[in-house]
């Protein structure tokens, strides 16, 4: 969907991004991760031409972005940033409707879309539609920012540290929300973060950057299990790679489906990381597993947490 070929950007003669070649596949959740100053935001902003690249080629849906009118390009690309940037004198509904208005959508369609997005992001439309940004908490503002970026049903959603500056609980809730929305809508998303946990939780594909270059890109599992360089290992090793691996899999992937157990149970879609916590908390070596209807569907053994690798 978005392809960079040998793309560079220079500031005062220094490369902020150097000969970058990367691919953000259609429908995938791509996360640009890396240390501060590694060129993540610059890379993201080059996609919607907030920053113009100096060398190489960027293609969007098969076309060179320089061959597309900037406004047309931006209408196809939603953009959400940490500082939110809501218009302070506009209500929540007016903020969300900004791009659909520009596109002259009929009023009815705009209203329906606004309410749909508010609902999707966990904000009761009747309660929030008419509020102004200053009447919202930081987390609610971030949600409205994401709703606004999604409003005109863009092909791609770009997010630059959209959950930064939030407390851990609200941040986790919004991460769950955006992951759910991604699965629901199958939208192509490119998100920038320097948070290792966030990258691994959200990404189908991680692009790890350092000093303006891609050091490794691929499925989170591959980066954790086969780091291409000491830098990659170091980036993830700062906190418990084993536990991180567990957070990428669910109970259903390791349970023994033919067994039944009458003791404590966990849901099939719980991550193995959470299941590990339950094992330790309860002091047990087996946990029953329940399906979506709450019916027993297998047993998870503590030993199986260290079992065979899933396919990547
Ligand atoms: N407008 C600018 N003028 C000059 N230098 C810039 C400009 N924007 C970015 N840079 C430089 O380019 C490099 C990459 O910056 P960028 O913001 O893309 O990094 P980042 O990985 O997003 O960092 P962070 O996580 O700290 O936001 C940095 O060295 C930065 O100082």
UniProtKB/TrEMBL annotation:
Family matches, as InterPro entries: AAA+_ATPase (IPR003593), ABC_transporter-like_ATP-bd (IPR003439), ABC_transporter-like_CS (IPR017871), CBS_dom_sf (IPR046342), P-loop_NTPase (IPR027417)
Listed Pfam families: ABC_tran
Keyword annotations of the record: ATP-binding, Nucleotide-binding, Transport
Molecular function terms, GO-annotated: ATP binding; ATP hydrolysis activity
Top-level lineage group: Bacteria
Sequence similarity: Belongs to the ABC transporter superfamily.
Coiled coil start-end: none
Keyword RNA-binding among UniProt keywords: no
Gene Ontology BP terms: quaternary ammonium group transport
Name of the protein in question: ABC transporter ATP-binding protein
PANTHER family from the UniProt entry: GLYCINE BETAINE UPTAKE SYSTEM ATP-BINDING PROTEIN YEHX, OSMOPROTECTANT IMPORT ATP-BINDING PROTEIN OSMV
Limits of the ABC transporter domain: 2-236
């Amino acid at each position: 969907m978005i392809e960079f070929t040998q793309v560079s950007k220079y500031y005062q003669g220094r490369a902020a991004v150097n000969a970058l070649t990367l691919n953000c596949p259609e429908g995938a959740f791509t996360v640009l991760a890396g240390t501060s100053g590694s060129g993540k935001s610059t890379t993201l902003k080059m996609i919607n031409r907030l920053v113009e690249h100096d060398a190489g080629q960027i293609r969007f849906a098969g076309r060179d972005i320089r061959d597309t009118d900037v406004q047309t390009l931006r209408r196809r690309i939603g953009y959400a940033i940490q500082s939110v940037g809501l218009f302070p004198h506009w209500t929540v509904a007016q903020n969300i409707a900004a791009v659909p208005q520009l596109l002259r959508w009929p009023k009815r369609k705009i209203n329906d879309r606004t309410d749909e997005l508010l609902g999707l992001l966990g904000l009761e439309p009747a309660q929030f539609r008419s509020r102004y940004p200053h009447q919202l908490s930081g987390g609610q503002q971030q949600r409205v920012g994401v709703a606004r970026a999604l409003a005109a049903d863009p092909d791609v959603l770009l997010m630059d540290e959209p959950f930064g500056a939030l407390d851990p609980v609200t941040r986790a809730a919004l991460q769950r929300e955006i992951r759910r929305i991604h699965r629901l809508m199958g939208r192509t998303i490119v998100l920038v973060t320097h948070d290792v946990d966030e990258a691994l939780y959200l990404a189908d594909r991680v692009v790890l950057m350092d000093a303006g270059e891609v050091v490794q890109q691929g499925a989170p599992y591959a980066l954790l299990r086969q780091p291409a360089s000491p830098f990659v290992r170091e980036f993830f090793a700062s906190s418990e790679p084993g536990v991180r691996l567990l957070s990428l899999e669910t109970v259903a992937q390791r349970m023994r489906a033919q067994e039944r157990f009458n003791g404590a149970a966990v849901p099939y879609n719980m991550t193995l990381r959470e299941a590990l916590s339950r094992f330790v908390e309860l002091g047990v070596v087996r946990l029953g597993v329940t399906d979506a209807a709450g019916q027993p569907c297998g047993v998870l053994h503590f030993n199986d947490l260290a079992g065979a690798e899933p396919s990547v």
